[in-house]
Structure formats: C-alpha cells, structure tokens
Amino acid sequence: MIHIEPQLLKRVNTWLTSTFDQETQNYIQDLIANNQAELKESFYKDLEFGTGGMRGIMGIGTNRINKYTLGKNTQGLSNYLKQSFPSEKLKVAIAYDCRHNSQSLAKVVADVFSANGIHVYLFEELRATPELSFALKYLNCHCGIVLTASHNPPEYNGYKVYWQDGGQLVPPQDAEIIAEINRLDYAEIKFEANTSHVEYIGKAVDDVFINESVKNGSFDTSTEARENLNIVFTSLHGTSITAIPETLKRAGYTNVNIVEEQREPNGDFPTVKSPNPEEPEALKMAIELAKKVDGDIVIGTDPDCDRLGVVVRNLDNELVILNGNQAMIIMAQFLLEQYKQKGCLAPTDFIASTIVSTPMLQNIADAYHVDYKIGLTGFKWIAKMIKDFPNQYFVGGGEESFGFMVGDFVRDKDAVTSTLLACEIAAQAKAKGISVYEQLIQLYIDHGFFKERLVSITKKGIEGAQEIKQMMIDARENPLQNVNGSKVIRIEDYQLSIVKDLTTGKETTIDIPKSNVLIYYTEDGSKIALRPSGTEPKIKFYISVNTTLDNVAAFKATEQKLETRIDNILKDMNLD
User: Fold this and answer.
1) Are 92 and 117 spatial neighbours (Cβ–Cβ below 8 Å)?
2) Distances (CA, A) of 109 to 119, 158, 198, 453, 540
3) Which pLDDT tens digit goes with each residue over 245-289?
4) Global pTM?
5) Which of 269, 274, 411, 533 is least crowded, fewest Cβ atoms below 10 Å from its Cβ?
6) Mean confidence (pLDDT) of the chain
7) CA torsion sign, 210 to 211 to 216 to 217?
8) CA distances from 345 to 212, 317, 384 (A)
9) All residues at 6 or more sequence positions from 104 whose CB lies less than 8 Å from its CB, including other chains
10) Which residues are tagged catalytic?
11) C-beta separation of 535 from 50 below 8 A
C-alpha cells in the first residue's frame, strides 16, 4: 500500500496537473509506484539559493534542477526586474557551461525572459563564467544568468544570478527576488519565446573580454621572460578552453602545453573523479605532462572557469599544488608590489578576502599600508565591497577555495585573468633566477608563517542535511573551551552576529550580514572555523595555525611543526 505524507503529497500533486508536460507526470507516477525514497528527495523542499546561486541534482521535482524550477526562477526575476526598472528597456545576458542540459536550460531561461518582453543576449556556445560578469556590464544589462554547477559532480547543474554591477545577488535584492519567486504559481511561467527579443552573442564579446583580461593581468614582464616560461594548462573538460589559451597567446606566452585528453568540453568529466582543482587528483594528468615537458608552472581550472589550481616547483624541484590561501597570498602581494613600484598605491586602495581564509592577508595589507576588507564566503561579498566603496580602488582579492579576482572589470572570481597573473609572477621569478615557491617562503619570513587546512565532511540527502544542522547546533550549545591544549579566547558567531571575548566576557556586534558560521580563536593563535557549504551537502572545518619563520633553512622543519599542530587539532576535535 502506498502511503505518502500529506504535505509531500500536496507538493507532488501540483506537478500532476496540466501545467506540467506528460513526460514529467509519467515520471512522477513511476516514482510514486516504485521509488518513494527518490520521490521524497525530489519534492520534500524547494531548491534554495546558496553561496553561489542555486545548485542541485538535475531531475524532476521541486528539489531538482529542471525547466520548471528554473522557469519559475526566471519568471520571478522577470517580474522583479519590471518592478525595479519600470521605465527602462530591460536587458539580460545569459551564459552556460559544459554540463549536461546547460545549453537547453539556458534556452529555457532565455525563452522565459523574452516572453516577458525582456531583451536577451544569449551566448551562442559555452563560455566562462567571468566572461558573463564582464559581458553584463559591457552590454549595459540589468542582470545576468550563468547555467553552471561549478565543480560539483556531473549530475548537478545550477543557476547563478548577477546584478547590474556584474556581481552575484546580495541583500536586499536576493531576498526580494526569492520572495517574488515563492509567490508565483508554476502556471504563471511564460515559456513561449518571443524570438525578436533573443540576440546571440559570441566572438565580438570574446575579443573585448580577452583584451581586457590581458590588460588587467599583465605587468612589466619582458617578452623573453614570457617566452621562456614553460606552462602546462588543463581545462578539465570545462569552458576555460574558450578563453585561457587565447588570453595567454595575446599576452605573449608562446610555450603553452595543453592536456589534450582534457581539452574537449564534456559534462561527464571522464578523466577525473571530480572536476575540482582543489582536489589533487584532478590535476594529476597535468602534473604528469609537466614532468615530461619540464614545465615551470601548471594551471588547472574548474568547469565554469572561476577557480584555478596552481602547481609550482618546491625547494627540491618537485611539482606541488599551492592551496588557495597560498596562491591568494602570492597574487595579492605581487599586485601590491607592482602598484607600489609604479608609485600609484594609495592608503585607500584595498585588497579583500573572506572570514574563513588565511589571516595572513591582513599582515600583507598592513605592510603595504593599504586597506583590508573581509566578508562572508563568496565573491559576491567582494563585489559588494567594490560597489559600496566607489572611492576606494580594488587591487585584488581572493578566498581559500581557489578563487582570485584581479581589479574590478570582472566582479566574480576569474580564472582567466588570474591564470595570466600567475604566469606573470612565475615568468618574472624565473627571469630573476628564483622560483614562485621561494617567493612564498620569503612572504612567510616577512609576514608570518601561516598554514591552513580544510576538512570537508559530506552528508547527503535529507538525513545528511539534518546531521549538518545538528552539528552546528551542538557547536553553539557546547562551544569548545580548549583546542589542542590551547585555551579558546574568542568566539565569533556570524549567525547571532556576536563576538564574545572569553577573557573579559565582553560581547560586541559583528557588522557583517548573518551567516551560519562559527569561528574559534585560541591563545596560541590557532583559528578554527565551522561552516555548512552553501552549494554542496557538506560541513566544512577550516583550520589555520601560525608561527614565525626566521630563514629559508628553517622552512621545512617549521612547516612540519605547523602540520603536526593541525593534525593534533583535528585529532582533538575527532576530525582525523
């Protein structure tokens, strides 16, 4: 006998009406008869907007990515645009990545916008996410959409929304748009396209974007140094193949070895377990190629080309992956030094990062006498900083999750320009007879040796989401008092917007939007952050420790001490 919870049945029955096509209804009837567990997963909630827009598994249901959930989003967004800009001719830009159904879903989104009388600039083929952020501003659009699930597994897709400034949605627009979407009935979605409002774009925009990437990512590197740098690049079957090779070529890099097995865009990502440059396995083929061709630097990007992994040679000439914090530190310091040498660095200039990234960036900003701004996880908050402080120049910034942004011509993490920047750093270093890794060690000597590690715990499905929720509740109700023998002296709770100094008992207010993040600081300078992922079924633990480093000779031993301290923290927290 079939028994479905009343609330779930109500949601399911909505999708068994004539508003939905027969194929959808047949699929749901099959789930009712044969797979109620999948039925519940598909319908128990509405798919939500998180850190990087809306992401989810493709399929039928309110908790899945499909033409109806994205159509409802787009109809709600269309309504909101008309309310926000009542006397303007509305324009939007749409891009999509290499994932299954990205192109067809992009067409659905374009159809709904056009049916609402909104002019659509739709990329004719897959394009990198940073190009959408650029194109939106370049074409004077009111908003933009990218169909992508970034580095998530092949069964996922997603819907990122960008606003007029080129950054992703932030308050108050995000809540207002979500409210408008939630007010809608599925029957109100206008799916019938007005083709006169759909304009395909491609190479003309590509050329401007790539030229701007070269302009923003190039510095005073000699032609000889560029030609002498041996680069290995992989697009990991993603969109970056449409932009990065050409960007490097226009900048003067002639020695670029592409991992051919991963060149072709493919939503199955057949040569990797995960198309995420944060995962060492994803860069394995590129590193193997670098060994064969004696590469100086390896770059790998995620499917929508906003994250990049950077591999350089260490003190023993071995190829090692820089973590996101290390790459960010190197890039930010290089930019500041370039501006300083040109005499155009002002105290009001700023670099930026996030609350779960390395505290070392603050030390670098202080050393260059520039402002340092910090926000919640996600580049939408860095884009908001640029918008909120128009009289301060944004030099660059990043976050620990392998993202960086150079200047403000793109308002999201940008692996195109950042790849060029990484190559500029490597080329200049090689021309001086040193390595990028040696430069990193010098930064540790100058600004303190900070070491970070990320631990992610995956909890899938309804039960997993509840487990993650309970873990955060437990952390708040029973806060850590000691970590690895060091007393907790401060707790930052971003959900309650409170900083509590445990030494004095004093509480202060956090002037950052609320978020489900909890950060502990200990007497020995350790920092432990807890945060549920906004785009994946994971809870993340960010560990940061630090000490001083006197010289290069002491690097390996000091690094091992920091690694051991992190191991002990994880063991103490039962995360090892």
Assistant:
1) no
2) 12, 12, 11, 39, 32
3) 999 999 999 999 999 999 999 999 999 999 999 999 999 999 999
4) 0.96
5) 274
6) 96
7) positive
8) 21, 34, 22
9) none
10) 150
11) yes
